[in-house]
Amino acid sequence: MNPAPKSSARPVSASTTLAYVEAFVAEPEGAASARRRAEDLGVESVSSGVAATLTVLARLLNARAVAEIGTGTGVSALALLAGMAADGVLTSIDAEAEHQLAAREVLTGVGIPTRRVRLIAGQALNVLPKLTDGAYDLVLIDGDPLEYVEYVAQAERLLRPGGVVVLHHALWKGLVADESVDDDEPLIVREALTSVLENEAFTPALLPVGDGLLVAVRN
Fold first, then answer.
1. What is the DSSP pairing of strand 89-94 with strand 213-218?
2. Which among 5, 62, 67, 94 would be 20 to 30 A from 134, CA to CA?
3. How does pLDDT run across 26-35, given as a tens digit for each residue?
4. pTM of the complete model
């Protein structure tokens, strides 16, 4: 066994490392506009590092059908579409029609055909049961955290074998890791993580990018 290399350099802080990770991959065209619209509307967007991860996952799957819970102003949609197959269709659900209007303007502005993005305004738990079983390559969960457990159950039904569920805010501002914290959001997110971890239908991993990503393959 080779000895560990020696270095006189001091390790950088965790915050410096995370900032490097987040800035490592440049965002696709239109992301800056989508983020400006999100700021104007008071909408929280996925981080640059999360966006890059979504693009990689969509590309690995050669995804042709993706469902997104939480459209926002299109930051995550741009990331997913950047990795999806050229004929892929993104179905994005959001209760806020104003947010989806902003997202549509952003997507149109970078030349994404309307037929490639199906925007559905409505409550996710009302819309998801109407989507086809086993028809999706990837499901992104980024909606109401208090409904995450129900979203996970719907994702299990919607995904094909080998498909991937991605749960954003999986660390919820760092509070999920502290089991003494029993506020509603971290508590429910923790329950959603456990529901995936203990479900033999999934093979999961928890990634410390952005506010945390749970990534799980449908077995």
1. unpaired
2. 94
3. 998 899 999 9
4. 0.94
